[in-house]
Every structure is written in C-alpha cells, then in structure tokens.
Amino acid sequence: MLKAIARKIVGSRNERYLKSLRPLVEAINAFEPQVQALSDDAMRARIVELRQEVAAGKALDDILPETFALVREGSVRSLGMRHFDVQLIGGITLHQGKIAEMKTGEGKTLVATLPIVLNALSAKGVHLITVNDYLAKRDAAWMGKLYNFLGLSVGVIVHGLDDAERQANYRADITYGTNNEFGFDYLRDNMKFYKEQLVQRELNFSIVDEVDSILIDEARTPLIISGQAEDSSTLYARIDAFIPLLRKEKDFTIDEKARTVLLTEDGVARMEDVLKIDNLYDAANITFQHHVLQALKAHHIFQRDVDYVVKDGQVLIVDEFTGRLMPGRRYSDGLHQALEAKEHVEVEAENQTLATITFQNYFRMYKKLAGMTGTADTEAVEFREIYDLEVISIPTHRAMVRKDFPDLVYKTQREKFEAIAHDVKELHEKGQPVLVGTVSIEKSELLSGLLQKTGVPHDVLNAKNHEKEAEIVAQAGHSGRVTIATNMAGRGTDIVLGPGVTDLGGLHILGTERHESRRIDNQLRGRSGRQGDPGSSRFYLALDDDLMRLFGSDRLKGLMDKLGMEDGEPIENRMVSRAIENAQKRVEAHNFEIRKQLLEYDNVMNQQREVIYSRRRQLMETSTPETFALDYIEDIVDEIFVPLEAAKGAPDAESLEVARTQIEDLLDLKIDLATGDAAEKQAVLDAAKSRQQNLSDIAGDHYKEIARYFLLDTLDRHWKEHLLSMDHLRDGIGLRGYGQKDPKQEYKREGFELFQQLIYSMRDAAIRALSRVQIRSEVKEQEFQHKDETANLKYSAAEPAEEGKPEPKRRHEPKVGRNDPCPCGSGKKYKKCCGAK
C-alpha cells in the first residue's frame, strides 16, 4: 500500500529514469540545425575529431549529444530514416549499460546505431550480438551504409570464416555476429599457441539484440568445444534393443516436469537379467546404468518432430524457443547417441570436453553490456541478479491499439484444433491476415493438414522449412494471408500490413498453446500492433495441453464438468487466463532456479578458467617464456627441500631418499643428499638452471619457443584432463545430499582441491619434459611450431559435438648430432662423451 502511494506521488523508477533523460534529448535536438548545415565530408571530419578527443581523454558522455545528432543526420542522408525522440531515449539507455525494452516495430535496429557509433569512437571495438547469421549479415549490411557514411568500418562474424577473416572483422570499429560465434572465438583463442593467431580483441562493449533469448533462454546451454573420446557407440545400439522390454510404471517411472526417468526394482532386475550382470548399481557397471537411463529418456521423454527431427540420416535438435533446427549441436552425456540408436541412424562417437563456458559468464566479461528486446520486464529480476542489468521500458512512438482477447479453453486438443481451423477459415474469408503460432513442428503440421481439408491456402514456417523465413514473414501482413509458424519464427523481421488490412482489423495473432514462459507468448503477440497499427490476438488452450496437464488443470476440468459444458464449447474467462498465467509464473521461477544453479556451479569453473586462461595468455604473449620455467624450477626445489629443512640438518634416511627420488624424477638430476641443508639445495637449483642454460646455448633463439611449447602443451593436456574430472565430480555430487552435505559447497571444496592438483601436476610435467629434452644444433623452428588442432574440432552451443578426431598433440624431442656439443655441459663433442656410452 505504501509503495503504491509513493509510486503515485514520485512515479516509478522507470518513469523517474525516463524523466531524467529529457535534458539529454533536448541537447541532442539542439545540435540538429548545426549538424544539418554540415556537408557530408564535414560530418566525417567531425567524427574523426571526436575520435581524437576521446583518445586524448575526453569522456564519451561529454560528446554524447553531438555524436547522437551526427548519427541521426547521417541516418537521414544514408538510410532515409530519422530517429524519433523515443529512439534517442533507447540509445541513451543502451549507452548507459541497461536493457531497453522496446515494443516490436519500434526500430531497435536503428536505435542501436546511436550507442554503437558513440562507443566505437573509443577505438576499442563494439560488438552487436544477434540470434542468427541471417540477422547479423542483414543488419551489418543495412546499418553499414550509415557507419560507412560516417567513416567507420564494419565487420560481421558468421559461420564458415577462417581465422584471417575473423581477425579482420574483429578489428573493424563495429562487429556484428551471433552469440555462438563470439563465444566460440573466445574459447578457440584460448586454445591457440601464438598471439598472432588470436582473433578477438578485448571485450569492450556489447549490445545484445533479443537479449532475453540469448541471456535467458540459452543460458542453460553452455558453449562446449569437444574432441573425440573413447568410442562406446556400439553399446548404445545394444542397450536400445532392450528398451521395448521395459514397461512403464512397472519397470520405470517418468517425471515429466523434471524430464527424468527412474528404474523401479523390477526394472533393475529385468536389466540385470538381459545384460547378464549381477548388480546394475555396482561401480563396475555404472556405464550400463548410464546407457539404460539415457535410452529410456530418448524413448519416453524426447519426441521426434518436437524436440528433434531426423534429416539426411542425422538427429538434429530443434530449438524449443525459436523452433529452428540447430545443425552441429548435440545433446551431452550420451543422450544424442541414445536418440541416434532409437532412430536407427549412425551412432557417432561420444566427445570429451576441451573448453567450455556459459553465456552468462562470457557476457559478464564485457566491460560494458547492454541489451534490446520487446519482452524483458517479466525477467527483470533475473537480469538484475545475474547480469547486474536494469530493464527500462521505452515508451512507444505511437500508442498501442492491439486488442488482446481472453483465452479460449477447450476440453481436448481435438476440439481445440477443430475450433482453430474453423476460426482461421472465417478470418481468411473476411480477408484479415492471420499468423498462427505453434509450439512444435508436429503441431504446425497437424494444423496444416486440417486447413488443407477446409481449403484455406497457407504457408508453413517451421524448422523443416526455414530457408524462406524472412520472405514468408514479410508477406504475412497482406490481405487473406495465413501463416503457420513456431512461436518465435520471424523474430527480428517486421510484419508490415498490406493495403487495406488496417480497415480489416490488422494482423490477427492466434496462439495454439501457452508456452511455459509468458515472455514467449508476449513475443508472439508482439508480431501484431506495430507502430500504432491495429491488430488482435487470442490463445486457444486445451485441458490436455502439456502446460495445463502438468500444472493443475484438474480444477478447471471439474469446473467445466459442473457447468455441464458441451463438447466443442470453450470457457472464455479472465479468471481462467489469470490462473494459467500463475502456472506460467511457477514454471518461470523453477527455470530461473535451474539457470541460477547452473551459474553457481559454473562460477567455480569460471574462477579456475580465468586463472588458466590468464596464465595461457601470459605464456603466449611473453617474450621471455624461459623465466616461467625457471620460476617453476625454483618452486619445485623449494617444495622438495621443505621436509628436509624442517629436520634442521638431521633428516632421516627415508626423507633423503624421497627427496633424491623427486629430484631425479622431476629434474633428471642424480645428486646424493647428505644433510638437505641450504648448500645442497642451492647445488640442486644451480644444476637444474645450468641444464636449462646449456639447452639455451645449444638451441639459441629457438630455446624460447621450445620452452613456450612445453609450458603450453602441458597446460593444455592437464586442463583437458581437469575438465573431465570436474565433469565426473559434478555428475555425482548430487548424491552428497543424502549424507546431509550441501552438494554445491562440496563441489566448490573438491573442485578447489582438484584445481590445486592441476596447478602442481601441470608445473611438474612441464619441467619434467624440459629437463629431458635434447636439441640438435641445427634444429628447425618449424619443429616446434604447434599444429592448429582447432581446425578439426566442432564448435557447438548446447552440447558437445565433434567432426573428425583432432590431431593428437606430439612431443618433439630432436636428437643431438654426433659432432654437436654434449648437452651434459662437459664441453666435449657428443660422440666422445655421453654418445660413446
């Protein structure tokens, strides 16, 4: 009550923020006459001057009004479009590192040009992230006319570019691209051996278009680069053959909300019998257990033409939010292989993680982050908690006049789809265009079949027919057009009304089902009513829809029965719509907790990733990699002598033997120890450093690259093994809850212990290798040029994918020539010294 009263008096936070921007908008407008008087060349010259002022230390905020005025005038001259005042407000909001929520058709693409140009003047690069390659190329070409007019360079990062092309595009003032490409380039850069191979610059400023889709919907999907692991593909087909023997409820149970499957005692006994094993839960049989559960999920939870499609002998994932196919993406933990076995296509080998990061942690690395979308307010809490991003609702240029009708709820899906087909036919005959939103390919094809029977011509846009997406969506507002699409299809493309359609009521949106997220429903509705156009929307539901069935339709069904409703007769009631919305809120809260938990686990990995990638970057960029090797040697010698020093000159024979063994193993030195005192410690250190100096003398300038090679090679090999260990740790950490321990805290504790082991083993392995390397006097530099293994790896979001086995890393150990100086440091020729032995 008090909050509501205060809001009426002083306005909401959103209103106060918008009010605070008015002076800036007035300042931009005040520059307009001055800028309009400039010639094209004079405008470009002024941009150069502003860039120089920023380089000299002037703040971007100080030049915002003039820069925005220049961009607006440049847009008029190059694109024929002038930014409205509300678009200026959106641009300021983005520049200040916030999320601008702008309704569909309000010109987000044009709004972004304002902060993009302003921040590009810092010469540190600006990234505009979009949801697919088509939009990245379209917007880069479209808005590129404006940027080029102002003298700024534009790059675009899409699938299929080589490293040289990526470098050039990242070095442009402004770079467009998809979230996947930017994320994978970051991971890939952290697998390179030479700084010249790096493609990305520092992560300076990023504007994320459709920010809710990328930072919310895809946040549960980590980016993973993987290589081929040990092949167990034949086991999937073997297990799949036994799955039809298992009976639902008797042998296994399904939790549809959690999307999990559990074997009952009968099911365990049955599988032990057919697999000829004594105990399915024995540690030795954990692989069988894993394969059985994944096969059950493949058969009873994941549905063909809903979660995936089979095309050209491959199982392709369907994005649940966009309805688009995702070639190259693969489910993890063997689920994709289980689906391949179920569909009787070739089962590809499993993969091992080589590098991974979540979108949450990738985008939080930018110095400044902003976003745009038509629907962010429902997720404002998550944006604030996870990304420290505030959501600002930008007013529309013209008032919204779309009519959103109450939901119609039917008893069964059959009745619902019959009603939809009937209503679509009526609207078509009237001439009003209709966009029908479905939640799956299966539903879109079912409705298409019904409409064919009624004789209604229509277009179907789903994952099986997405090539003409922009063309189909662009025509969807013309008189009499009926377009069936997955809920998110055509996002980023305006539906412009054809001649005479405004008089017919504008575009009608017909939703065939409620999505788990209100935001997805709002995005579908937002396809209509752009820029003050008329429009309407309505959702059709059935009590056996997944959302209704899983989240409390029993009370509604009882109500419909009490009312004595006839078959085919719907409920149209605002209270019913509110009840459905409350169910959606519960699902959203549940999904938020899942994403939050994913982030909490990944934060442990992120701290480790930052340490390793920082060390890698230092090793790549340093001109003196040998200093790292010498530091490692000092650390190793210090640790070996700690127990001996604690004995204060009187160590026991066992401690001396342990130290002597470690010196021989790690440093390849045979030195007898008597007291373990400071003098003996110094002798060991001098001998180890002398070994490296001799190596340097023989190899000359090549020694630096030899040291760099071994230091990076051992880091990469051990980091890869560590990622596998962390995967295994996480898989089983949930069981700690049965021991009254917090799994997340246990994961942090054990993960830290594993990381400490990684640091020590990485260091020890590098020095062990460097202490044993032998060099020819005429060694060629190419012998230590690291092969770019990333060429044969598959980069996929969602889950690991692989395309061919990567080249194994090889340790190069050139031999010493017989007439070369002996590497032992004697000064004799090798053939007369160690080579004669």
TrEMBL record:
Membrane disposition: Peripheral membrane protein
Compartments where found: Cell membrane; Cytoplasm
InterPro entries: Helicase_ATP-bd, Helicase_C-like, P-loop_NTPase, SEC_C_motif, SecA, SecA_CS, SecA_DEAD, SecA_motor_DEAD
Domain of life: Bacteria
Subunit structure: Monomer and homodimer. Part of the essential Sec protein translocation apparatus which comprises SecA, SecYEG and auxiliary proteins SecDF. Other proteins may also be involved.
Family per record: Belongs to the SecA family.
The protein's name: Protein translocase subunit SecA
Provenance organism: Solidesulfovibrio carbinoliphilus subsp. oakridgensis
